[in-house]
Structure formats: structure tokens, C-alpha cells
Amino acid sequence: MANPRMLDRDESVLVVIDVQEGYRGKTIDHERMVAAVRRLVDAARIVNVPIVATEQYPKGIGRTQPEVADGFPPGLEIVEKLSLSCWKQPAFAERLTALRRWQAIVCGIEAHACVNQTVHDLLDRGYQVHIPYDAISARSEHDYRIGWEKMIGSGAVPATVEMVCLEWVRTAEAPEFKAIQKLIK
Predict the structure, then answer these.
(1) Which residues lie closer than 8 Å to 46 by C-beta, 6 or more apart?
(2) CA 124, 44, 76: angle at the middle one, nearest 5?
(3) What are the structural domains, with CATH classification, of the chain?
(4) 86 is a catalytic site residue
């Protein structure tokens, strides 16, 4: 890889955190965030980047919103959790470790809670974490902003959905470029 702070699709995994029905309409720019997460899911499938998805207490918060879940690969098992950090759920840690990829693109809800704690646990374990600003959210503006600032200040790499998509293909000569281009227009 030419630049260690740029994504390499062969080293990447997409982590989708808790984009659940119970948050519908309750987070900042919710529809924008859900659409952005879906674009990441679609892009990951186009370039063969594995996806690990979680749901926080689905009995109370509901399942992953269909706008996102309908894009998941067939057979994707969503990790249910009670811990705020995904890493603290053994099934998540095992799944991520088994992939043997060192770059994690983290998206979902909420920036100051589950996303924040997961990002810090991943950073502590040596993962390079990229966070697309347009694919995370929180219920309040200050939690969104401070959560973002804390993660970036701790070493996560700031990104956008379009940046992630373009780093995964790197060139207009990539066979997947046109499909990716349709996602980001």
C-alpha cells in the first residue's frame, strides 16, 4: 500500500453499529446517515469488503432498519450485544479477529456511545480506524460533535463515505469504478 493512512480494500472491514428502528427519526440528520451507511454497505459488497454488523439490545431498540439491512449480504449474522463497545461482545471480537484485516471503517449510532467506545477499543488493539463523518450520528448535536472530536483526537482517521468508496477503488480503471461512481453521485 502506497500510503498507510489510505484504505486498502484487501485490508478493510466495514463495521455497522446499531442502525436500529428505535433510533429512527431520533438522531441528527437521521435519513442522511442511514442513506450514507447503506452506500457504504453497497460499496463494500461491490469491492468484496466484509461487513460486521451489530444491534444493541434488539428486544428493546428493534432490528436494523431495512434501508440498511436489505443491503447486507445473504446470511450475514448480526451480532447482538448489551455492551456499548462492540469489542466487549465476544462474538464481535471473534468475528473481527478471524477476518485478519487491520483497517476498520466504523459507521452507525451513536457517535458518543457505542461508536466511540468501539473505536477506542479497536485503536487500543492496533486497528487503523476510519470514521466517515456522514455515516455516524447521535441524538444530540453536542454528543455527535464531541464524540467525533474525541475519536479523531485519539487517532481515528476522519473520512466521508465518498472518500472511503474512492480509496477502495483508487483508479477509474478499477473494474468496480463505474458501480462505485453510481453510488456517490
Answers:
(1) 176, 179, 180, 183
(2) 85
(3) 14-184 (3.40.50.850)
(4) no
Integer Cα distance of 106 and 51 in angstroms: 10
Residue 59: pLDDT above 80? yes
CA 22 to mean position of chain CA atoms: 18
Query: For this structure, is 18 an active site residue?
Result: yes
| pLDDT-derived band at 2, boundaries 50, 70, 90 | low
Question: What pTM was computed for the model?
Answer: 0.97
For 146-167, write each residue's pLDDT tens digit: 999 999 999 999 999 999 999 9
Hey, how many other C-beta atoms are within 10 angstroms of the C-beta on 58? 17
Among residues 107, 114, 121, 165, the one annotated as catalytic is 114
Residue 98 exposed, middle or buried by CB count within 10 Å (0-12, 13-18, 19+): exposed
DSSP annotation of 11: T
pLDDT bucket at 58, cuts 50 / 70 / 90: very high
Annotated catalytic residue within 81, 107, 121, 165 = 81
